[in-house]
Amino acid sequence: TYSNFELLLIDDGSPSKIDSEHLLGLVESQKDPRIKYHRKNNGGLSETRNFGIEKSDGEYIAFIDQDDLWEKDKLQLQANVFLKDEKVEFICTDAKIIGERNEEMRIGEKWGFADGMVPDTFGRMSIGDFVACSSAAFRRRAAAVAGYSSRAYVVVPDYEYFFRFAEKMNFYFIAKSLVCYRLHEGNTVKQRLRGACEIISVLFDRKPRGLMNRV
């Protein structure tokens, strides 16, 4: 329902020439200048997202992984919030799981969030990650403050990256499932041991404050 966008498809050095040619052909067949194809040398998830940010022209940036889906009004609802309140820098939403099982994630219900700003976002992110990556949207100026996604993290790069936003600003939450997160055997989040170690690393150098002090 929101048409003022550019869609950047980043091919992270696919080893299959056929797959790359198919993706490029798909983009060209759309004959839509908003849809752009970029191929780069393989560098992993964080490097690919950083590459996408650098190549983008928009005032707002949103990620969507290749196996996830957005609801049709996802961008529109987030754009409405950004345009209404200049103080909002980062927006995330509720989500639902599809694939191995179909269910609402009920992020807002579990964390006690309603539509609006999340008070003490840093403290809540210190307790656990509540941002479904493909739900996130943020202003370009916020990305300039937070910096780039770190290549040091393989399983939880989203958590580490969004945590840096939370150090600088509170998030806005939309209590509506606007993203479908696809659960399957290939999800990197299933690397539980490495993921736990990476979470410890994320938290290690951050000074506790807010809710974290009361846990």
Q: How would you describe this structure to a colleague?
A:
- A hairpin with a 3-residue loop joins strand 5 and strand 6.
- Strands 3, 4, 5, 6, 7, 8 and 9 form a 7-stranded mixed β-sheet that branches. A two-stranded parallel sheet has the order 1-2.
- Helix content is 36%, strand content 21%.
- It has helices spanning 17-30, 45-55, 74-84, 107-111, 121-127, 140-146, 157-166, 192-204, and strands at residues 7-12, 35-40, 60-62, 69-70, 90-99, 103-104, 116-117, 137-139, 172-183.
- It is an alpha+beta fold.
Essential attributes:
single chain, 215 residues, alpha+beta, 7-stranded mixed beta sheet, two-stranded parallel sheet, 9 strands, 36% helix
Summarize this structure briefly:
The chain is of the alpha+beta class. It has 8 helices and 9 strands.
Quickly count the helices. Answer: 8
**So what's the overall shape?**
globular
> How is the main sheet built?
7 strands, mixed
- Round the mean pLDDT to the nearest integer and report it: 90
Element string (H = helix, E = strand):
EHEHEEHEEHEHEHHEH
Low-confidence stretches: 209-215
- How many distinct beta strands? 9
Q: Into which percent range does the helicity of residues fall? A: 25-40%
Structural class: alpha+beta
**Rg, alpha carbons:** 17 Å
- Give the terminus-to-terminus CA distance: 42 Å
Strand content: 15-25%
Write the layout of secondary structure elements.
Elements: E1 7-12, H1 17-30, E2 35-40, H2 45-55, E3 60-62, E4 69-70, H3 74-84, E5 90-99, E6 103-104, H4 107-111, E7 116-117, H5 121-127, E8 137-139, H6 140-146, H7 157-166, E9 172-183, H8 192-204
Parallel strand pairs: 1-2, 5-9
Antiparallel strand pairs: 3-8, 4-9, 5-6, 5-8, 7-9
Helix pairs in contact: 6-7
